[in-house]
Amino acid sequence: MIALQQSAIFQEFAGKIRAPETVAVDPLRPTDIPRPASEINRIVAIDGSLVTETLRDGFPGAEASLVQLALVYVDLRKLKTEPAAKIIPPRAFNTMDTAHTLQTVLPGRNVVREDGLSPRDYFRVSVFEALQGKVVAQGHETLLETYESLVSGRDTPFKCPACGNEIIPTVGRSNCRCGAEVLSTDQLRFHERFNETGPNGEPHGEVMRFLEIVLLVNVLRYFLTSESAVRVLPDIAFVLDGPLAAFGQYASLAPYVKAELRRIHEESIKRTGRGLLIFSLIKTGQFVEHFERIDFDREKGPDSFFPRRVRFSQV
What we know:
Elements: H1 2-6, H2 8-14, E1 42-54, E2 63-75, H3 90-95, E3 97-107, H4 119-130, H5 143-150, E4 158-159, E5 166-167, E6 173-175, E7 181-183, H6 201-222, H7 227-232, E8 236-241, H8 254-272, E9 277-281, H9 286-294
Parallel strand pairs: 1-8, 8-9
Antiparallel strand pairs: 1-2, 2-3, 4-5, 6-7
Helix pairs in contact: 6-8
């Protein structure tokens, strides 16, 4: 790699690249947030994971991905100690959280369903069926019901996965005039990114992040179902592991999610006098790499423009 960077042809290539314009960087000044009327004493965290495995089904290169969503409820009140206590009892950490999971398997290339359904269509059906699970509580709506509620009224045409004819989004399962089955999740066009001959890490990853967003909205909608639940809504911090954004095929879902979050926030203020606290954690990836690059100075080193501020408070 060093030899490549020092080679004449590489130096010539690097000289043809236009560098971004240098602009002055304003220091990032933290915004003062008013102290809430009551402290945050609970956390609801959502985290997705994806593992891709090679399948031994007789077809070369066949693979599938296991997607798992974890919904973790953390009761910070159990960390409260007596005034004289200096060490939090270890048993408090063992009883403070409760986790629920939702799992689904997404087929990749060369994975044909037992009834002969092609890998691409098998993937389409798997995305639709992944939304039919429940994580929160019995009696609450499924992720599919949450998703279809979000996009209800959407009338932007999309192409039938089978024939390419333009069709209007519908709920559940329907049929195109060509006779092919169409699913309500087809309008997100995940199947258009499906790779028939190569890895499918990107479309599988997009589906995982899509499920995380829908699960977040599903959980928030649950807290509006009863007065006892909505009363504790402002006492909870909702944390999503990953960006609070929609990229790729499901980016069109973003305005609908924003509108629903705004509705829930305003409903919480109306019924409790306080709103929502939602934030995300981004530890790796392109966004973090970009931030570290603009925060680096050749003379001062890292943390030059956006100093880190960590505040510790006693529980």
